Records
---
Amino acid sequence: MEESKLEKRYTIGEFRKLSGLTARTLQYYDEIGILTARRTAGGHRYYQEQDLSTLQKIVSFKFLGFSLGDIANFIHKDIWNEKDSLIFQHDLMKRKREQLNDVIRLLTLAIDQMEKGGILHTDIFISMINHVQMEDHHKSWMKSLVPAPYVDELFNRVKSNQEEIEKKAMNLFSRIKEMAFSDPTSRAVEQLVTELMEPATEVAGDDLERLEKLFATDLEGDPWLFPYPFSPEEEKWLEQVMMYYSEKEKIESGEA
């Protein structure tokens, strides 16, 4: 047979350069059977041109978010009738896009704060990023404590004004860190407490006190879900401050 009629072969090194993948990745794809190398009579591994087409399918499926297990099932199909899988990936990619938009918004907010001379506290930023990453888990956790429709309503209220809420939160949390361990009775701390309660009241409304008690109890069993933006010492100081003004409010209203 003439050489021109033979399908072109690629050594492992040649195929790796063409694909941009590492030798270890190619070996792993071989091991799980989604891109299997052939072997010469002497035992040397090689690929053919048709393997480039298979690789393009793998890359495309991975870009769409499919697992390697799913890809193994899809890879050799000429006609794809997996409508439910497409719908699932469509919804998943939309959710990822929303999360990316949220992260970009937080990064922009952080950059803006630093450009204005503010300090970006790592704990605060990580806490806010966590909220984006774990939003679905936060919803599930809250729905285990209060009715699902109410949880959805709370999150919708936040979404409708999320950028403004995040801007206020980053600013307030930063000021709390800067003022930590100050005299709780000072005018500056009192003003800070007032500002801190405003966004919470806007979102939770009349249910704020009930939710605070409920979450304060149950959060102890799920601390990994909500990393605190404050150190234990700062948190203890803040609890003392909030308790002081809560008691003060009761006295002034005649409830004490």
---
Amino acid sequence: MEHFALLRMLHGVAGALLLVTFFALAGYCWRSRPRPLGAAEPSAETQAETGADEPAEADVEIAAPAEPEIPSRTSPWPALCAVLLLLCLVGLPVSGWWLAHLAGWPLGQPWLLGSSLLFLPGSLCGLWLASRVVGRKPGVRRGLGLAVVGLLCFGASLGLMVVKPV
């Protein structure tokens, strides 16, 4: 029975890690959103309309010395989150089936079937979200939409697993 407790603990850790990676990937989507630029400079058309060829002396700002550009490096964290998500998505059904087998629960119980059915769209959303974040085209609306749908599916599945309504 000791290995049952260990497997149950590992299953819980994998479930928590799944939720953490979902939140991390959603955070990467949120950080990739376009940021508003500063005040826009007047266009050539507005300068022509006002008759101003050059800005007035009061409008001239002294530019600070330009900082050297640091080459942008890609962070390994989104890829690491995607790998952890994939490992959890593969490991959770296996460990869940093993736990149900060791506990003697028939797989036809409604709470097991329901959580299995919720796991499928949640995992598809997670894989799609991870591929968008790692591919650097997250898009805030679609990425956060995927994260919300996936988290709702996994949250409902987790609720069914914890409550075990018979």
